[in-house]
Each structure stands twice: as C-alpha cells, then as structure tokens.
Amino acid sequence: MKALWLLPLLTGLLATGEGLVYGRCALAQRLQQLGLDGYAGYSLANWVCTACHESSYNTAATHYNDYDGSTDFGIFQINSRYWCQDGSQPSSNMCRIQCSELLTDNVAPDVACAKIVVDNSEDGMGAW
Q: Which domain of life is it from (predicted)?
C-alpha cells in the first residue's frame, strides 16, 4: 500500500513498442537534469509545454510534412530538412545527428539538438 505513490512515476516512464511516453513531471525532471531550465531565457515550463504539444511526450513520435517532404522526429519534433539527417532527402543537418537518434528513450540527443535549434533560429523557440 505504501508503494502506491510510485505508481504515477512508473506509469510516466513505461516504455512501449513505440518508444517511451514520459509523464509530465518525469520529463520535467529529466529536462532540468539536461540543462534546459532557463536555457536561452526559456523556462522549464516552456520546454515541457513544447514537448506536450509537439509529441504528447512520446520519444518515438514522427510526423511527415506533405508540403516539403520532410519529417519531424522525437519528443520536440525536430525537422529533417534543417536539423537532422534521415537519409531520404538533403538536409542542412545542423545538429550533426541522424534523425533516428531522436527516436530513442534517451532524450539527451533531443535536448542537445533543441539547444542548437534555439541558438540558431531567429525566433528562438518560435521555431516550433
């Protein structure tokens, strides 16, 4: 009975065949550990909200963009045209990463790339 407080935490960290779907608090804690709280002037809440709206906290989320043939990858839906290389089309690959690395349960590559996006976009988080 005393272990019931662990249930929400464990539920937020359960891995499925489609990747890890974080709980909001578990993701916030991980993003804070990876240095996003206050990064480039954006609060941890900004980053968690972006992950919620972009991927519903799903590390394996993808979205194909009909308008240009690019694909968005991972918890922050990082675009293959500019930020990562998916092998299907030319990419600027500014994060110097394979897009598939953004689909794992490890969000460290997503965070590193998100920092590059914010640092190299005229609109900062407006890039999303």
A: Eukaryota
Q: Is the pLDDT of residue 64 over 50?
A: yes
What pLDDT sits at residue 18?
A: 55
Domain assignment of residue 95, given as a range: 20-127
Active-site positions? 54, 72
Pair of tokens at residue 99: 């897009």
Residue 32 lies in a domain: yes
Q: Which of 45, 15, 43 is nearest to 107 (CA)?
A: 15
Q: Mean pLDDT over residues 102-125, rounded?
A: 96
CATH number for the domain including 120? Answer: 1.10.530.10
> What is the CA 5 to chain-centroid distance, rounded?
27
Report pTM. Answer: 0.83
E-strand ranges in 1-128 read: 15-16, 19-20, 62-64, 71-73, 78-79
Number of domains in the chain: 1
